[in-house]
Amino acid sequence: MLILKFGGTSVGSPDRIKKLLDIIDPSQRQIVVLSAVSGTTNSLVEISNAYLQNDKQKAADLIIALQTSYNKFIRELFSTSAGLESGQDLIDYHFGLISAFANELFTPIEEKIILAQGELISTTLYHLYLSEIGVSSKLLPALDFMKIDEDNEPVVEYIGSHLEPLLDQHPQETLFITQGFICRNSFGEIDNLRRGGSDYTASLIGAAINAEEVQIWTDIDGMHNNDPRIVKGTKPIARLSFDEAAELAYFGAKILHPQSVFPAQKYKIPVRLLNTMDPKAQGTLISHESESGKIKSIAAKDGITAIKIQSSRMLLAYGFLRRVFEIFERYKTPIDMITTSEVAVSVTIDETRYLSDILEELKSFGSVEVDPEQTIICVVGDFGADRHGFASRVFESLKHLPIRMISYGGSSYNISLLLNTTDKVEALRSLHSRLF
Ligand code: ASP
Ligand code: MG
């Protein structure tokens, strides 16, 4: 079984939806995971916010605008009156449901129901379109098998044991369609896998039913070896290991939802990143294998704050770092990078909501310095201890820029550096020209 996931832009217009059949071969047994039409989830978030603020007029205006765009969408998608009628019924049903929340108490539970409508609409529209043109397909309701637990962690075994019987009910069917992003939580309520979560859906399904391969179809030809918006001449990376891909996905290579790497890795399902606009392009294959002896990619993450704690109490002490980390833990603030010396420790965070509370508590240890507007530059590749020279090439490329922190040796496949965000563009370009 193959899992094919198409993102919001790949279903973003009637024309794009029709072209999916250039990629999908209906005779192959597969599950197609769809996102909402691009822009829809953002609009649904706005509608929910209006409801949360009890601004019913604003909610109604936003609903009409979105519904109008769908009315136009279906007129272009369907070519028969029966098809159009089925599409119209669908749109009327979902927008009726969204509008009806005006008369109810609106809580985060209702909000999640609204956010789910985008994927419910896109998948059903595609199913209806396929039946209009005589292509058989089966809709699988994600809400019947996608499940997260009390900690919002997906339950892969549950997903498998509820999805397999649905597939078994249709032994002759080859083309299954389901919603990305949406799921049920431990209370059985409608929930979701957070923004961009459709990739995660695809890899969870792949893991749960032991698929041959998960294909993530977007509009760029795989993960690039640097940020194409900043550096000219970036190239797609042919192969990445799961670890390398997770590192890059976290560091802002927006093409893949960072968490989606883990189920695929754990259950050994290869993930291929492919381009809807150029289906023949090789893309990026993420699997257990990687090419050794190579630098793969450079990525950057902005909005980082560095904190340095200097304390003579750290000298020859044990338990000091634990006490520092506990403060961050209490404020639910993840630490990204760490470097230490005998009497100081520097950490970085990207969530600054509780920064002033954290700083207040850290001051009990000694002096504390804060540098906002920092960027982490992450170079991913084969940095195993037996490789000589790669690290020095990285430093050589950055010798003209002030570096605030360096993290090397945490894993054998990356070096991370912290520098001022104002130096990011120069750093990315300089690394690119010297490393590739
Ligand atoms: N529609 C959802 C979002 O916009 C999920 C996704 O597209 O992956 O975040
Ligand atoms: Mg996405």
What would your notes on this structure say?
With 436 residues, the chain is α/β, with parallel strands linked by helices. It folds into two domains: 2-218, Carbamate kinase (3-Layer(aba) Sandwich); 296-435, VC0802-like (2-Layer Sandwich), CATH 3.30.2130.10. The chain has 13 helices and 16 strands. The protein has helices at 14-19, 40-52, 56-77, 81-100, 108-132, 156-168, 198-208, 242-250, 261-266, 320-330, 355-362, 390-397, 424-435; strands at 2-6, 30-34, 138-140, 175-179, 182-184, 190-192, 213-218, 239-241, 271-275, 284-287, 295-310, 338-340, 344-349, 367-381, 403-408, 414-420. The protein has an eight-stranded mixed beta sheet with strand order 3-4-2-1-7-9-10-8, with helices on both faces. A six-stranded antiparallel beta sheet has the order 12-13-11-14-16-15. The mean pLDDT is 94. The structure holds aspartic acid and magnesium ion.
Task: List the SSEs and their pairings.
Elements: E1 2-6, H1 14-19, E2 30-34, H2 40-52, H3 56-77, H4 81-100, H5 108-132, E3 138-140, H6 156-168, E4 175-179, E5 182-184, E6 190-192, H7 198-208, E7 213-218, E8 239-241, H8 242-250, H9 261-266, E9 271-275, E10 284-287, E11 295-310, H10 320-330, E12 338-340, E13 344-349, H11 355-362, E14 367-381, H12 390-397, E15 403-408, E16 414-420, H13 424-435
Parallel strand pairs: 1-2, 1-7, 2-4, 3-4, 7-9, 8-10
Antiparallel strand pairs: 5-6, 9-10, 11-13, 11-14, 12-13, 14-16, 15-16
Helix pairs in contact: 2-3, 2-5, 3-4, 4-5, 6-7
The chain binds aspartic acid (ASP) and magnesium ion (MG).
Residues 7-8, 35-36, 41, 118, 180-181, 195-198 line the site of aspartic acid.
